[in-house]
Structures are given as structure tokens and as C-alpha cells.
Amino acid sequence: MKSRHKKLLAIGLGLAGIGIAAALILNAFQSNLVFFFSPTEVTEGKAPTDRAFRIGGLVEDGSVQRQPDGLTVRFVVTDTAKSIPVAYKGILPDLFKEGKGVVAEGKLGTDGLFTATQVLAKHDENYMPPEAAHALEQAAKAQKTVVPQ
Amino acid sequence: MIPELGHFALIVALLLALTQAVLPLIGAQRGNLTLMAVARPAAQGQFVFIALAWGCLAWSFLVNDFSVENVARNSFSQLPEVYRFTATWGSHEGSLLLWVLILGFWTTAVSVFSRHLPDDMVARVIGIMGLVSVGFLAFLLTTSNPFERLIPAAPDGRDMNPLLQDWGMIIHPPMLYMGYVGFAVAFAFALAALISGRLDAAWARWSRPWTTVAWAFLTAGIVLGAWWAYRELGWGGWWFWDPTENASFMPWIAGTALIHSLAVTEKRGAFKAWTVLLALTAFSLSLLGTFLVRSGVLSSVHAFATDPARGAFILGFLALVIGGSLLLFAWRGPKMLTGGSFTWFSREALLLANNVILLAALGTVLLGTLYPLLMDALGMGKISVGPPYFNAVFVPVMAPVLFLLGIGPLVRWKGDRLPDVFTRLKWALAVALAIGFLLPLTLEGFNPWATLGFVLSSWIALSVLIGFRERLKNGGRLGNLPRAFWGMSLAHFGLAWGIAGITLVANYQTERDVRMNVGDFTELAGYTFTFQGATGFPGPNFQGMRGTVEVARDGKKIATLHPEKRVYNASGMPMTEAAIHPNFFRDVYVALGEPLDDAAKSWSVRVFHKPFINWLWLAAVMMVVGGFVAASDRRYRIAVKKLEAPAGAAVQGA
């Protein structure tokens, strides 16, 4: 092989490698995106039932119930318009509290129960997770446009 | 009075920074030695005044001056003294002040250790660093004044975020910033070389030790952050691919590529344009990291109160720095001559491959970090990209770099013969493959990820050892090997060590969440954990519950651990303090969840067995020390002197 051919071959192999890598990366990216839905959107049926997503809002006052096994917790996440029941098995983050903001990641069951695999902590007492704040904002907006009718 | 003095010192520092930026740059352009001579004293003066301002802020924190808003927000009269001091950089304003303080430190270091450099080069480098300082000081003074008074004064402070009350956090930010800001030196050298058109090997040699030291600091900063997360967050994880972590990891990847590319530029005169571009990238990513973390767009422990003016300022500054430097690059870059030629199998080619793959890895992290922000900004919905994406993509992309790492240092510059190199490395390859396939079988059965990790780590470690053996066989003595070689070998060996640790802990860790009454026990990885109850105790600025968990193995007690649950007085914020029993081979880790009954007799408890986790920290120490050792190589001092001799003196590579 002449050196020019070698060079072409090397460039060709390089491009093929980059192409394959890019395809793999974008594929992994697509399948690992986690979308966010507010409780209102979930009740409207906009959320998928076959893949994990995040919900956020406030933990409804008086909704936290510990199950008999001591580790499973049930609570309700609300954006003040709609509410979603959530179940989570494990140790909750320190700043999980009724009436405070929360973000949960997990899957929605056919029975409407959201089974969380992760409950995200806030890092600061006064700080609201942006997703939770977003959900409350959306709900407030929706209510404003609905009420006058 | 003291806070006003600090504020005044900051203003003086800004004026000095302006002087330091403008006069030397003009002087260098006109060849005016008097103007160029302003650079050093202006830089040193600026550092003195920033240090003064910083000292005033630290003083306000130490004496609990709650008439300063920053202190009232981030400190507390009951806060232990050491945390009052570290609270100085615990806030948004304070951390930016630390940023400019460190920039002043680096600039002063350049002004002191640059006696042998041409005057115009020094003037330009210090001038450019002055411009960066002007940007940050203006930002501090206009949007984030750390000395803002609170009238009337608060009776007491709101306390520092309890998560930050840990001694890992005392040194994490300064180390991280030493790294971030250290890349400003490489950035300034690259821009100065672009402006002067003097893009020769000398420029690469000048900026090499600075870049390596900055990289070592950044490595230390990142790992300290991981170590803090591991001990303090109580979830047992040490890396979450959180955007704030990625923000520091991206400049690290770019910096890693840069120190390797600089090696080629220095030794062979090749890749000049590429190296310049990497220097611009590394610093731009440091700024991006600062922006991501400080502007409040991310929800994390680092995100302070959001203020749109701040975000807009940093974004504008970022655009100016990145845009300006890229424009300069586009204008002057094409004038750069390409260096020596090399074949496809040479150290140059392998380092090029290293660079390309590292940048691809950087791209995957950048995509995963910025895409959600972009979607959000465009109003296209809120999404998040979690660890599964990064694990699925980053590891496979990095694997080829790690494989090449075992070959690169043993291949000659310009060109080598593949069969020869294969002969030198075939035993290492065979042993690495054997370890990779057999070791998992003795643990929990075949596992492709474990195999990949073990093959790569033993491959790199063996290659490092072969490097030493060959040097010694060629008549070298261990004490005579250049420090650059020692440093490189140590850093590479540390990396191998770290990969082994990561592989072991990621694939073989176990954890269990359990409900425990007093006297209950649970078993994990051969250890028995017996819960003996929890009792209340008062802390300096919190009320705590201290649990007692006895850990035994084969009926023999090995440790009594005391995990804590605290509620901080000022903020009412609860915190988990995990208790860890470490040794060389594993950590046993216990964290208290929450009391499950009113009498606090029954608790949810989380126990972890973390095999070989401490190898990670040990590996980081090796990499950091390796960086410092490499940067202290004699060559950087001697070779520079040679340059003052008539041009054309051949530069010998090690």
C-alpha cells in the first residue's frame, strides 16, 4: 500500500470510529433522558407509564404514612391543583418534610401510584428545587386562567 | 470600620488591576520598557490589596459582625471558630473573593518566577491575567459586594449551611479554585504567544509546569469534593454526575488533554494550534464551571440565592473571554507553523489519539450537563440526565484512552515499529488479560465491567513498571531518572490504582436499609451490626442524637460506630453524620435514617460495605504528588536559561 492509501485508510477508519461512537452516545442519551412532569400533567395522562420520569411539588400536609415494614413511606405530592400518591422504600433525605418542596424519580403504575426509586434532597432549608417550583408555578398559572371563567 | 476598609481595598485592587492590564499590554505592543515594567509591581500590589480585603472579610466573620449582610447570612454566633473562618468562602460573595485572591496569588507567582522570560512576554501574560481580574473584581463590586452592610444589624446569623460544616469542605474550595484559576496562567501564556506571534517550543516549556501544577490542584479539589460527598451526604456515594461535579470535571479533562498536548509541543514543536486551543478551552471551561455553579441555574448545595444580574454578568463575561480569545485564535492561529513530522505509530500519534478521545469524553459530559439547561432555557420542558447516561457513555469512551496509556510512554517520538513495541509489552498484556478474566471469577463470577476495569488497571500499572525497568536496563539509576519521568509514572500508576479501586467498589459494594430496635442486629458482607440505641447530646450549634452500632466479624468485635443525627439551632436543618470504620481494604459505613417511634428506640439504619474505597483517595494522592514532582523537573529551570543563549540551541528532550 502506498502511504497515501494508508493515510486515506486511517482517515476512513477514524471517521467510521467517530460515527459509531456518536451513534452509541446519542442512543444512550435518548434512552437515559429523564423527563419532568407536574402532578397536573400526570393526571392529564401526559406522563409515560413505560419509563421513569420525575415529578415535583410539595409534600401534602398530613400525607406522610409509614408502612408496617418501617421502611416504606407513602406520601402525596401536590402542585396545589392536583395530587399524586407516591411510595418510596428507603431512607428519606434529611430535608424531606410535609409542606416542603420535593422531587421524586420513579415509575407510574397503572393504579396511579408513583413508585419512586429516588427522592431528591434539597440542600438548604429555604431552597426550593427548581423543578418543584416550576410545577407550583404552572399550577398557579393554570388556576388563574381557569378561575375567571 | 473594618468592612469599609475591605471594600475600599477591593476598589484599590480594581484600579491596580486596570493598570496591570492596560499599561503593560500597550507597552508590549509599542516596545516601551517603562510601561512593561509596570506589570510586576501592579500585579503584586493588586494581590496585597485583595489579600487585605479578604483579611477584612475573614475578620468580620471571626468577630461575628452581623451588621455585614454576608456574615449574617452565612455565619452564626454558636458556630465553631474554624467554621466561622471557612464561612469566609462559604457564600457566593466570599467564594468569588477567594477566586480573585487566588488569581492574585497566581499572578504574583508568575511575576516572581518569570525573571528569565522576555520582558514583552511577561508584560503580556500579566496584562491578560489583569484583564481577567478586572472582570471578576468588577463583578464583585457591582453585583456581589461581600461587605454590604445590614442596617439594622441582625441580632444573630442564619448559620452556615450544615452540609458545609465539615473539614473536607474547608480545603475543597481553595484547592478547586487553585486549579480553575491556575489554568488562567496557561490561558494567558497561550494568548500572549498568539499576540506576539512567538509560538515556538519555548512558549510551551514556559507554560508546562504552571499547567501541571494547576492540574494537580484541580485533581485534589475534585477528589476532596468527592470525599466530602462520600462522608457527609450519608448516601455512601462519592460521585453523582451532578452538574456541579461535572462543572469541575470538564476543565479537568481539558486540562489533562492540555498537559499531554503541551508535552508534544515542547518536545517536538507539533500540535501548536491544537495546544493553544486546548489552553483556551481549559480556562473557558473553568469560567463556565464558575458560571454554572455560581449563577444559581443548578439546584445544588453550591447554588446560592439567584440573582439575574449576576447570571447575566457572568454570561457576558464568559462570552467576552471565549469569543475574544477564539477571534484572536482565528486571526493569528493560521500563522503558526506546523512542527516536526511523525508516522502513525509514534508517541505523537498516540498522544493525539489521547487528546481526541479525551475531548470526545469531554463532549459527552458537556452534552449531558448543558442539554437540560438548554432545553429549560428554550422552554422545551424540564429534563434531567442522570448517572445511567454518563456511566453508559463515559466509561466506554475512556477505555481506549486507558488502553493507549499503557503503550504511549513506551513508544518513541517520530516513529516506532509496532512489532518491537508488542514484544516489549506482550507479557504485560497477557498478565493483564489473565487478571481481568480470572479475578472476577474468584469474587462473584464473570462480570464484563469488572473485567474491563481490572484489565485496564493492571495493564497500566504493568506498563509503568516496564517503563522503569527499561530505563534502568539502559544504564539509568533510580535516583538519576528525571523528575518528569517520576511524576508521569507516579500519576499513571495512581490512575491505575484508582481504576482498580473504582472497579472494586462499584461492582462489589453492598448496602442495606433496615429498621432496627435496640438490640437488633443485621448482617452484611460477613459483618454483624448490632444497634445499641441512640441518645441525645448537645452540640456547639446543634442538638444531636448519637447512635451506637457495634460491628463484629466472626463473633469478634472490631469497632463501635457512632453515627449521628443533628438538628442545627439556627436553621432548624437536620443533618446526617455517617460513621465510618476505614481500613486499607474496605470501609464499614453506618448512617442513621430517622426515628421510627416517639421514644427513639427504633430507627431506620443504613449500613454499607465499601470494598477498597480508600484506594480512590490514595490514588488521588499519587496523581497529585505526581503532578507536583513532574512540574519540579530541573529541565524547566535549566532549559530556560539555555534560551537566553543565542537562538538555535537545540533543545534536548528527556
3D structure, described in words:
The complex is a heterodimer of chains A (149) and B (654). By secondary structure, chain A is α+β, with helices and mostly antiparallel strands. Chain A folds into 2 domains: 33 residues; 112 residues, OB fold (Dihydrolipoamide Acetyltransferase, E2P), CATH 2.40.50. Helices cover 35% and strands 29% of the residues of chain A. Chain A has 3 helices and 7 strands, in the order H-E-H-E-E-E-E-E-E-H. A 5-stranded mixed beta barrel of chain A has the order 2-4-5-7-6. In chain A, helix 2 links the parallel strand 1 and strand 2. Chain A starts with a helix and ends with a helix. Chain B is an alpha+beta fold. Chain B has 3 domains: 351 residues, no CATH class; 98 residues, no CATH class; 103 residues. Helices cover 62% and strands 12% of the residues of chain B. Chain B contains 19 helices and 11 strands. In chain B, the strands form 2 sheets. In chain B, strands 3, 4, 5, 6, 7 and 8 form a 6-stranded antiparallel sheet that branches. In chain B, strands 2-11-10-9 form a 4-stranded antiparallel sheet. In chain B, helix 3 runs antiparallel to helix 6. The N and C termini of chain B lie far apart (56 Å). Chains A and B meet through helix 1, strand 1 and helix 3 of A and helix 13, strand 1, helix 14, strand 2 and strand 8 of B.
Helical fraction of chain B? 55-70%
Terminal CA distance of chain B: 56 Å
Q: What Rg of chain A is obtained from the alpha carbons, in whole angstroms?
A: 22 Å
**Could you describe the largest sheet of chain A, including whether it forms a barrel?**
5 strands, mixed, barrel
Poorly predicted regions of chain A are none
Number of strands of chain B: 11
Low-pLDDT runs of 5+ residues of chain B are 299-305, 642-654
CATH architecture type of the largest domain in chain A: Beta Barrel
Strand content of chain A: 25-35%
CATH fold topology of the largest domain in chain A: OB fold (Dihydrolipoamide Acetyltransferase, E2P)
Q: Treating each run of at least 4 consecutive H or I residues as one helix, how many helices of chain B? A: 19
Quantity of strands of chain A, as a count: 7
The general outline of chain A is elongated
Count of helix runs of chain A: 3
Order of helices and strands of chain B: HHHHHHHHHHHHHEHHHHEEEEEEEEEEHH
